[in-house]
Amino acid sequence: VFQLMEKLQFLLLDTPPSEITEKETVQYQESILDLQNLLHQKYNGATQHLLKRANTCEDSETGNMQAVIKDKNVTFCIWANLKKKVRFRNHLFCDAEHGFQLPKALAVSSVAVRILHTRYDHLSPLWLQCQGIPKLEVSDSEELTQPSKDNVEEPEEEEKQAREEPNVPSEEGVCSDGNKSAVSSKGKSNGIADGKKTAEEEIEKSETLDIPPEVQDPQLREETNEEAEVMTDEGVVDLQRFVPVGGVYHIDALQLPPQVRQVKDWSVVELLNSGLEVYPYPPEEAEDTTQPPIQITLRLPDNVLYFEDPVIARWDPSGRQWRTDGISSVTYDTQEKSVTFEMAAFYTVALLQDTHLNLPYRAWELQPTGTDEALLAVTTVFATIQIQIKGNQCMLSSVVVEEKDVLSHLSGKWTNPVNLRALLRNAGVNIFPGEHSHKYVSVTKKAALAEVRAYQQMALMASAFAFSWSKWNQAAGQEQVVFKVSEHLEADSDKDWSLYTFNGQKAQKLKITETSEAFAEELEEDSEFHSTLYHMLKDSASKEAINKVETASFLFIDVVYQLLLATRVLTYS
């Protein structure tokens, strides 16, 4: 059941918007909810079975029953109040290091407490829509973000000219679109290395560029999403800003069922038709509405990074949303890696982290390390993340926090970009901006035309050239991107960086350096501007570098492009 849910989640993540209908998306989400309900029916059946025989598993010290069951996806903690003594209202599950303190009224009642920690979150299948998770493929829409009028003709005039002069190529052409891209893994002419069409031909044949929704002009998107941005309830968690990390904790108070009795050689137990019942707290008939809270202690999972104290939120099943009201007195023990808080009732809770903690990046670098191999390094305020690329796969090479290598259980495993992105996000390392990230991160909003075309052409050249961040990228304004480039044929060789600027239709080498006093668009001496970054770099490249570019695998190019588009290093640095 769990594997099927994972497959459905992957389909929602990986399928381009053009290939899935809204009806299919809703069907997948409903299927995930149905499967989740099936899983919890199994957990409830197991809970009821254990509680019926609670008196046969009494703890020698307290006389109450407690059990902890673990596997890779779930930690199941159950406690039964058999003796009903106030002095035993505190309990710590030693094997899990989760615990609770009950109000006195519950400590003398026939109640059981269950803490079910699932390391996945299928409670909120609409989370994907709220988050605006980037799709890694270019959409089928032919709409372009309007570039500067100084640099490009009006779209209507371009379309008219294309119809009237279908056989007249531009001087050098522009970068290929999403359906014929040299960095797309679809179609027969996807790569430089297919032997039928060179990258140069692919670039020159294209006249349009499809812009993925997450890199469209934020100003245009803000107008259409204006109503959605209004948060009317302060208690509701904004899932565009926060994300559950480390799974979900289902904390329940349950009615203790009739216990097994030994009658001579028989084991007798009363059977109830109602099944497992919730113990109501606070009591519905209580005159005093301010009932004492329940205190909960949770051990933070070791396989997740919390860069700041997480936000505790409870699940509201009626509104299908996370809320922070009803949670109070939150304290963190950094040494013990635990959090203690009080709840007004028994809730399902999660630990939430700011989605944009690692944005903007402090630095990034992409460099080739061998034939169809490269290394992408992203440095944030908290960590340095290195991703290795080889052929059609990628893997987490390392995550370094305060000079310590962490998340070793994730590193060294080859996978695809979509899976890698999900693994890092689930581990609390989010370096993948979403559709709404521009509202929460202070960056210069780059024109989608320049940004996406830059990623495509950087991927084309990644087998022989290293790329890196430049401090002048922010100063260059919205219409163009600025970055460092160096031919790099040996993995351990020094880099001779030069600065380049690109606006989607014009690439040029700049005279300034990183140490210059101010940004200036003056061209480097004896250099010319080109309509593509590909032609710009090819003009000054060595024969060996050109050969590496022309023989690079299109699958390698596609993985590089996917990771650049997912991290969006040219906007969020």
TrEMBL record:
Residues 194-208 have a biased composition (Basic and acidic residues). Residues 1-87 form the IC97/Casc1 N-terminal domain. Belongs to the DNAI7 family. GO terms for molecular function: beta-tubulin binding; microtubule binding. This is Dynein axonemal intermediate chain 7. Residues 138-229 are annotated as: Disordered. Signal peptide: none annotated. Residues 321-488 form the CASC1 C-terminal domain. Residues 178-188 have a biased composition (Polar residues). It comes from the Eukaryota. It comes from Atlantisia rogersi. PANTHER family: DYNEIN AXONEMAL INTERMEDIATE CHAIN 7, LUNG ADENOMA SUSCEPTIBILITY 1-RELATED. Pfam families: Casc1_C (PF12366), Casc1_N (PF15927). GO terms for cellular component: axoneme. InterPro entries: CASC1_C, IC97/Casc1_N, IC97/Dnai7-like. Transmembrane segments: none annotated.
